[in-house]
Structures are given as structure tokens and as C-alpha cells.
Amino acid sequence: GVLDRCGHRCRLLLLGFREGLELRLVLRHERLPFVDLAEDALDRRAVDERVSLKHVHKRLGALAKVLIVTTFMEDALRVLLTFSVQQQSMRIAGWQTPALHSALPVLSFCVQFGGSLLIVLPADAGHRAVAGCYILLGWCLFHPFMYKQQTNWEFVLETCTIMGGLLVLLSAMQTSYHDARKADSVGKVLPVKTAAEGGGAPADATDSMLKAAQRNQAFGRVLITSVFIFYAFQKARHHPPPLTHTRTRAHACSRLLAC
In sequence order, what are the residues at sequence separation of 6 or more whose Cβ sits closer than 8 angstroms to the Cβ of residue 89? Predict the structure, then answer.
């Protein structure tokens, strides 16, 4: 009897071991969904550890700044290298005062070169980069009037397209500043000042900046398309669609057949 009980227990142990081995084989060949999800999460984490997304974002932001201010840097250097030509351009534009023939090109160089440096050079620009955007936006508003080109639609709309890029850049910097302020305020108890003390809720200020950033981004996207819409309109105006010629030929053929 004792031997029979021992043999029965051994058979149960062997049966349990065989079932466990079969379950492992099933899990190995027929992967469960949660196992795949867990491995995908681990793979993504490994990729994030190898590639710092924060550094990639900073590099792309720096590249975007350089690309946007390139047109201003190029124009500033062109003014400096062809200063006598710029003086003649001021005379042709109709500026009567001789002093303005030199002062306006100098102003053009200083504003464009200085505003571009405010945007590009500082790594953590903050308010300086925002000030640089506003300086270049103001220059874009004055630029057509400086050369007396305010009635030249192509010139004005090209300037509007550049202003659209500046507004999108300004929106990105305002959003980054809002996110940084929000991250700094987490877990901190800031002193609250009354309106008489010149204070206010920092959250309200950053929220208003975020709303301004959203408005600048929307308006900038519209302005970016200005010159492209103009060129499309000009092309459609000077090149009628083929359907018009087809109808004309069909009408001429019908008249010949009628004769």
C-alpha cells in the first residue's frame, strides 16, 4: 500500500511537470498580446535612452531659427557690400533729404543684423529672442515704404510671407516659455501679490501668453501662404485653362460644319 501511494504521487508530479512544459512551449510559439505590448514598451524605452528627444527638439529649433533669419542676414550683408547702390536706390525711391540716402541703408543693416543676432545667438534666449522677432516684424512693416513699393503687390506679399514665418517662430518661443514657467511652478508655492502691489497670478500671465501664441501661429500660417496664392492667381490669370480653348475649337468646328 505504501508503494502504491508513492507511485501515485510520482505520477502526479510527472504529470504536473509535463503540463507546465507544454504551457511554456505554447507561450513561446503563440505569443500573448500583453507580452508583445510589454516588449514594445521596453523597445521604445531603449530607443528613448539612446536618442534624447529633448536634444533633437533643440537642434531642430535652432535650425528653424537660422533658416528664418537667413533672408534678413543676407539682405543686411547685401546692404553693407553695395552701400553706394543702396544710396542710389534711396534717391530713386524719392527720399529728398540727402542725409536719408545714407541713414536709411545704415538703419536697414543695423535693424536686420541686430534682430537676427537676438534670435540666433543666445541658446536660452527667452525674452531677447522674442524681442528680436518683434524688431524684425516691425522692419517688415516699414520695408515696403522705405523703397516706395507699398503698391507692388508681389513685393508686399513676399514680405507678408516672411512675416508669417516670424509669427510662427514667435509662437513657438512663446509656447516654450509658457511650458518652462509651468514646469518651474510645479511643487512651488509662489507669493501672491495684490493688484495694488503690482502683482498678479503667474498662471494668468502664462495662459494669456499661450493664447497669444495660438493667435500668432494661426495668423502666421495664413500669411505664409500669401505669396504662393499670388503666384497661383497670376499663373491662372495669364494662362487660361485648356478647357476654354477646347470649347472655342469645338464652337469653330460647329460653325464650319454649319456652313
Answer: 147
- Angle at which helices 153-185 and 53-81 cross, to 10°: 140
Q: What angle do CA 7, 13, 17 make, to 5 degrees?
A: 145
Can you state the percent helix, strand and coil of the chain, rounding each to 5? 85, 0, 15
d(CA 235, CA 224): 19
Grid-cell match 506679399, residue found: 157
Residue 14: the pLDDT is 54
Q: What crossing angle do the helices spanning 127-146 and 153-185 adopt, rounded to 10°?
A: 170
Q: Compute the distance between CA of residue 139 and CA of residue 91 in angstroms, rounded to an integer.
A: 20
User: Cell numbers of 98, please?
Assistant: 540727402
Exposure string (b/e) for 187-224, b if CB count within 10 Å is 16 or more? Answer: eeeeeeeeeeeeeeeeeeebeebbeebeebbeebeebb
Residue 169, classified by CB atoms within 10 Å of its CB into exposed (0-12), middle (13-18) or buried (19+), is buried
**Rounded alpha-carbon distances, angstroms, from residue 128 to 138, 160, 182, 206, 237:** 15, 23, 20, 17, 44
Specify the amino acid at residue 208.
S
Q: Could you please report the per-residue DSSP string of 42-69?
A: HHHHHHHHHS-HHHHHHHHHHHHHHHHH
Q: Angle, to 10 degrees, between the axis of helix 127-146 and the axis of helix 53-81?
A: 30
How far is Cα of residue 77 from the mean position of the Cα atoms in its chain?
Answer: 26
Whole-prediction pTM: 0.64
Per-residue pLDDT of 114-154, as tens digits, reads: 999 998 886 555 688 889 999 999 999 999 999 999 999 99
What is the distance between the alpha carbons of residues 256 and 250, in angstroms, rounded to a whole number? 10
